[in-house]
Automatic annotation (TrEMBL):
Protein known as: Multiple C2 domain and transmembrane region protein 5
Record carries keyword Iron-sulfur: no
Pfam families (UniProt xref): C2 (PF00168), PRT_C (PF08372)
GO cellular component terms given for this protein: membrane
Membrane topology summary: Multi-pass membrane protein
Residue intervals passing through the bilayer: none
Coiled coil feature spans: none
PANTHER family assigned to the protein according to its UniProt record, in alphabetical order: MULTIPLE C2 DOMAIN AND TRANSMEMBRANE REGION PROTEIN 5, PHOSPHORIBOSYLANTHRANILATE TRANSFERASE ISOFORM 1
Gene: LOC108817334
Compartment list: Membrane
Main location: membrane
Superkingdom of origin: Eukaryota
Organism: Raphanus sativus (Radish)
Family statement drawn from the similarity comment of this UniProt entry: Belongs to the MCTP family.
PROSITE patterns assigned: C2
Length: 769
């Protein structure tokens, strides 16, 4: 799993966790939660109390419940002046941390100085029943309170106490003993949750024309354009070429919106009366709830909308309606997939409209087991600490594990399932430090990220690996720990899965009515902002910094390191062709006479029997594929520091990568980087110019720009046509092949005659200024 030249600390490691899959435990958990290790908990459900005695001078009671087990203590919220309170709260104590044999549930009365004791209930842990889902939940029971001497007192408490695992329904919403330092108000920020991205739509606004506009300045022809707004998205058409009161545009504007639709579409017709001054000639608002929805490329009906404008009367804004109107075609595009993440790491490729979805082809099951070796992300009470949780994103479904407080080796052991509609998709995992627990900074810090492409996974195989968590800092690449995952892809239909490889990657509307690259980039940015804003409004929120990191919002920003990595990726792809070229050069130079003779024989056979050429090529590719099957990758891909050029990056390049946009660096540094870019751009410019020169030389063969060269080429073409007409093609091919493969004794170091002629042809480079 360690790649050549890669640091062993950054390598993928195969693990053998004690998960339920394949284990003959006889436990129902192994059927439902089989990709994680079992974690046993003592659950205490505090439901309500009744007939609690008053402890205050006024005879009232401010009750709360304290659940104590050894050194761990959990508390419910307290109610003021209520003798029959309802809490409906669950407490979970990790069995591996239990050091006591007695569970004590105490009811107390909240007081300013010392809380008053009302009563308690004691449980022997050896007598507590065990429950395993899918058994029905344990029914709570009424227990009579006792004083400190075991005598029954007034008041009863409804409880349920049982031993269970993380598969229990109460696990997600329970207060956990490993988060004892988090108060009741902070518990919501550390619980595990499942989130759904909002359903995104493209809105196409086809601005056709306007009629009967009334400009403010009637002495000149209006320069009119239309400005369209949805929320913070603003687009405008070009200024109409028809300088009349009935301008025409016939221009499309594209927006991204999310259900439920909260903002209307607002269109304003504006007249440019001066270089920096525009006057609104009228506006209209269109609620998106009433807009038509389109599933294919067929046009929908257009509509006329009345324009309105406001005037000031006695200091008040007064709305007047008049005869101006605008002709629009507005619809929600259901046939596109709204790209809200980087194209290379897409986790969902389905169209927006559910009617166009195809059946799922499989299930993706993930066990987020644990992490270890985490670095301290913040300081608390003078020592480093980490409050880690994990986020996973696939399709519209986001999951967030619970936060393990103050641990460098957290164990989550949570399992999640996603439907798979296309294997050419990527699931992304991110580990974060919770900054919203006591002592936190208020911002969740990134620990690292892992991506797994589903098409690289074998069906029905469980992958258990420890992935390095790597993060770029201004000082360089850092390993912040490792995360242990168990992943299984289950195929529901092999035929449907294989059929997917013959289908377009994106929905057909992307090919029938494609969007421009600039449009896609702008729309992707808007979609990311919408998803981030919506998830930030959930409870608990999936905060903006988390969503942006998972969606790779800054992946389009310039980076010298990424540019180098991409250049060497291209060179690695071309290395195969370069290797074939070098091998052929060795054949032509007779470095290995036996091999060259065999190539001659093979070439003669293929010339004499040309019908064998294609079968030979495909048979050769088949044999290569079968041969490489023995060395096929057995592990999912992971972040490669060598491929990313992260292990030997210059500090200034790193500083540039972490610079803000627009830049916040000093003018001297910006000037130096600008000069460096000019130097790189000059080299690119030279290469592009050389490519243009070669193309122009080809075109000048028949353009008579150089009459002597064109004369030679034209007469050569005539002679070649006559010779090839009277000579069988096989003879020509045989002679050409033998000439190319001739012995070095018959070769010359000087360039060939055709190459000499080509290099003498004129190009347009001498016409450049």
């Amino acid at each position: 799993m360690q790649k050549p030249g890669q640091n062993i600390d950054f390598a993928l490691k195969e693990t053998s966790p004690k998960i339920g899959a394949g284990a003959l435990t006889g436990d129902k958990l192994s059927c439902t939660y089989d990709l994680v290790e079992q974690m046993h908990y003592l659950y205490v459900q505090v439901v309500k109390a009744k007939e609690l005695p008053g402890k205050d001078v006024t005879g009232s009671c401010d009750p709360f419940v304290e659940v104590k087990l050894g050194n761990y203590k959990g508390m419910t919220k307290h109610f003021e002046k209520k003798s029959n309170p309802e809490w409906k709260q669950v407490f979970a104590f990790s069995k591996e941390r239990i050091q006591a044999s007695i569970l004590e549930v105490v009811v107390k009365d909240k007081d300013f100085v010392v809380d008053d004791f009302i009563g308690r209930i004691m449980f022997d842990l050896n007598e507590i029943p065990k429950r395993v889902p899918p058994d029905s939940p344990l029914a709570p029971q009424w227990y009579r309170l006792e004083d400190r001497h075991g005598r029954k007192v007034k008041g009863e408490l409804m409880l349920a106490v049982w031993m269970g695992t993380q598969a229990d329904e109460a696990f997600c919403d329970a207060w956990h003993s490993d988060a004892a330092t988090v108060g009741p108000e902070g518990v919501a920020n550390i619980r595990s949750k499942v989130y759904l991205s909002p359903k995104l739509w493209y809105v196409r606004v086809n601005v056709i024309e306007a009629q009967d506009l009334i400009p403010y300045d009637k002495t000149k022809f209006p320069e009119v354009y239309v400005k369209a707004m949805i929320g913070n998205q603003t687009l405008r058409t070009r200024i109409s070429q028809t300088k009349t009161l009935n301008p025409m545009w016939n221009e499309d504007l594209m927006f991204v919106v999310a259900e439920p639709f909260e903002e209307p579409l607002i269109l304003a017709v504006e007249d440019r009366v001066a270089p920096n001054k525009d006057e609104t000639l009228g506006r209209c608002a269109v609620p998106l709830q009433h807009v038509q929805r389109r599933l294919d490329h067929r046009p929908l009906n257009s509509r006329w909308f009345n324009l309105e404008k406001h005037i000031m009367v006695d200091g008040e804004k007064k709305e007047i309606k008049f005869a101006s109107r605008i002709h629009l075609r507005i619809f929600l595009e259901g046939g596109y997939h709204v790209l809200d993440e980087s194209t290379h790491y897409s986790s969902d490729l389905r169209p927006t409209a559910k009617q166009l979805w195809k059946p799922s082809i499989g299930l993706l099951e993930v066990g987020i087991i644990s992490a270890h070796g985490l670095m301290p992300m913040k300081a608390k009470d003078g020592k480093g600490t980490t409050d880690a949780y994990c986020v996973a994103k696939y399709g519209q479904k986001w999951i967030r594990t619970r936060t393990i407080v103050d641990s460098f080796a957290p164990k989550w052991n949570e399992q999640y399932t996603w439907e798979v509609f296309d294997t050419c998709t990527v699931i992304t995992f991110g580990a974060f430090d919770n900054g919203h627990v006591p002592g936190g900074s208020g911002k969740d810090m990134r620990i690292g990220k892992v991506r797994i492409r589903l098409s690289t996974l074998e069906a029905d195989r469980i992958y258990t690996h420890s992935y390095p968590l790597l993060v770029f800092h201004p000082s360089g690449i850092k390993k912040t720990g490792e995360i242990q995952l168990a992943v299984r892809f289950t195929c529901l239909s092999v035929i449907n899965m294989l059929h997917m490889y013959s289908q377009p990657l994106l929905p057909k509307m992307h090919y029938i009515h494609p969007l421009s690259v600039l449009q896609l980039d702008s729309l992707r940015h808007q979609a990311m902002n919408i998803v981030s804003a919506r998830l930030n409004r959930a409870e608990p929120p999936l905060r903006k910094e988390i969503v942006e990191y998972m969606l790779d919002v800054d992946s389009h920003m310039w980076s010298m390191r990424r540019s180098k990595a991409n250049f060497f990726r291209i060179m690695n792809v071309l290395s195969g062709l370069i290797a074939v070229g070098k091998w052929f050069e060795q054949i032509c130079n007779w470095r290995n006479p036996i091999t060259t003779v065999l190539i001659h024989v093979l070439f003669i056979i293929l010339v004499l029997y040309p019908e064998l050429i294609l079968p030979t090529v495909f048979l050769y590719l088949f044999l290569i594929g079968v041969w490489n099957f023995r060395w096929r990758p057995r592990h999912p891909p992971h972040m490669d520091t060598r491929l990313s050029h992260a292990d030997a990056v210059h500090p200034d390049e790193l500083d540039e990568e972490f610079d803000t946009f627009p830049t916040s660096r000093s003018p001297e540094i910006v000037r130096m980087r600008y000069d460096r870019l000019r130097s790189i751009g000059g080299r690119v410019q030279t290469v592009v110019g050389d490519l243009a020169t070669q193309g122009e030389r080809f075109s000048s063969l028949l353009s008579w720009r150089d009459p002597r060269a064109t004369t030679l080429f034209v007469f050569f073409c005539l002679v070649a046509a006559i010779v090839l007409y009277v000579t069988p093609f096989q003879v020509v091919a045989l002679l050409c092949g033998i000439y190319v493969l001739r012995h070095p004794r018959f070769r010359y170091r000087l360039p060939s005659v055709p190459l000499n002629l080509f290099r003498r042809l004129p190009a347009r480079s001498d016409s450049l200024l």
